[in-house]
Amino acid sequence: MSGDKKVLFSGMQSTGSLTLGNYLGALKNWVSLSEEYECFYSVVDMHSITVRQDPAELRKRARNLLTLYIAAGLDPEKNCIYYQSHVSGHAELAWILNCFTYMGELNRMTQFKDKAAKHADNINAGLYTYPVLMAADILLYQADVVPVGKDQLQHLEITRDIAQRFNGIYGDVFTIPEPYVGKVGAKIMSLQNPEKKMSKSDENPNASIYLTDDPDTVIRKCRRAVTDSEGAIAYREEQPGIRNLIDIYCACTGKTQEETVKEFEGRGYGEFKLAVGEAVVDVLRPLQERFAELSKDKAYIDGVIKNNAEKAGYCAMKTLRKVQKKIGFPERIR
Ligand code: ATP
Ligand code: LTN
């Protein structure tokens, strides 16, 4: 948007505590991309309320998440780290884009189907139009690239469709974004059911490793991970539990699948699970230390929140004004 760098946008919901899946599938890639792009990393608290939230808890989680972005290595001087709810342009553009999105498209979204099944007592319109707000997030900043885990690719596809439809009518208003899915850690599965993704809203705490888990908890969860009775450490379809542990081990150590399989050839599951646990602990330790330090510095975090909301608001407004003009909203009188 400014300068020569391409623009990157991504976000995470401030629901629940972040898991190792969120870190390896998303946050870790964000850090590695942050030098190359002009980055907007949002705490998407407006998306969070598609599921009922306790207000005090939501506020606390949003702040923790924003702090964690910085603890993970994103420099808030170089990356725009902000709360979605502090930039009203997201909601304004989402409304406009709602009028360019078909119900037939939204009916196909698998995340909606999953969440509707999980929250059968609260299938609200916001949950249904969630992908449109996500499209607004991305298009508002004219993002070229959007790093996400595999589970979000369908939402990226609908974002592209909406943008192309809009551009088809009004000319080149929006940049068409490309997804970026990292090679390792793209989909970390539940430790208790390796057919399901590791999710921060899983009701079984043993299914997910949280970024705040202490070393003993991490090791215990890895030891208890559901595997199989094959007895061999191999990367095969038939062994989803072991495959997932190999993925975690590779993502944490930087080793390849082949190297890992070779390293543990002829060794037992117990030994392998312990090694996986230790690799995870090594990744989490520096993150947790930095998070604890940053959390104490209220003034610093407050400054980041204020400055970056202003910066994001300025960029968002440029796109929003252009869109409003294109669709025929009356000009503002100054
Ligand atoms: P929820 O359980 O509340 O739906 P979630 O754990 O799926 O949440 P999101 O906030 O939806 O997390 O996702 C944040 C980012 O983390 C997204 O880019 C998503 O693709 C990525 N992500 C989430 N879960 C995983 C996973 N198990 N493996 C890899 N990436 C993941
Ligand atoms: N839907 C995403 C979170 C999200 C997002 C975005 C990701 C909201 N807006 C814009 C990338 C770009 C999720 O559930 N993980």
Short description:
The protein is mainly alpha-helical. It is built from 14 helices and five strands.
Name every ligand kind in the structure.
adenosine-5'-triphosphate, L-tryptophanamide
The succession of helices and strands, N to C, reads: EHEHHEHHHHHEHEHHHHH
Rg from alpha-carbon coordinates: 21 Å
| Proportion of strand residues | 5-15%
Net shape:
globular
Main beta-sheet strand count, sense and barrel state = 3 strands, parallel
Uncertain stretches of 5 or more adjacent residues: none
N- to C-terminal separation? 25 Å
- Which percent bin holds the helix content? 40-55%
What is the strand tally?
5
**Which class of secondary structure composition applies to the elements?**
mainly alpha
What's the rounded overall pLDDT mean? 95
Number of helices: 14
State the strand order across the main sheet: 1-2-3
Explain the overall architecture.
This protein has a three-stranded parallel beta sheet with strand order 1-2-3. The model has no long low-confidence stretch (mean pLDDT 95). The chain has helices at 20-33, 45-48, 55-71, 89-98, 103-107, 110-118, 125-128, 130-140, 153-170, 215-223, 240-253, 257-263, 269-296, 298-327, and strands at residues 7-12, 38-43, 80-83, 145-147, 178-180. It is globular. The chain is mainly alpha-helical and 334 residues long. It contains 14 helices and five strands. Strand 1, helix 1 and strand 2 form a beta-alpha-beta unit. The longest helix is centred in the C-terminal third of the chain and has 30 residues, at 298-327. Helices cover 54% and strands 7% of the residues. Bound molecules: adenosine-5'-triphosphate (ATP) and L-tryptophanamide. Residues 12-13, 15-16, 19, 21-22, 25-26, 148-149, 151-152, 185-188, 197-201 line the site of adenosine-5'-triphosphate. Residues 12-13, 15-16, 19, 21-22, 25-26, 148-149, 151-152, 185-188, 197-201 line the site of adenosine-5'-triphosphate (ATP).
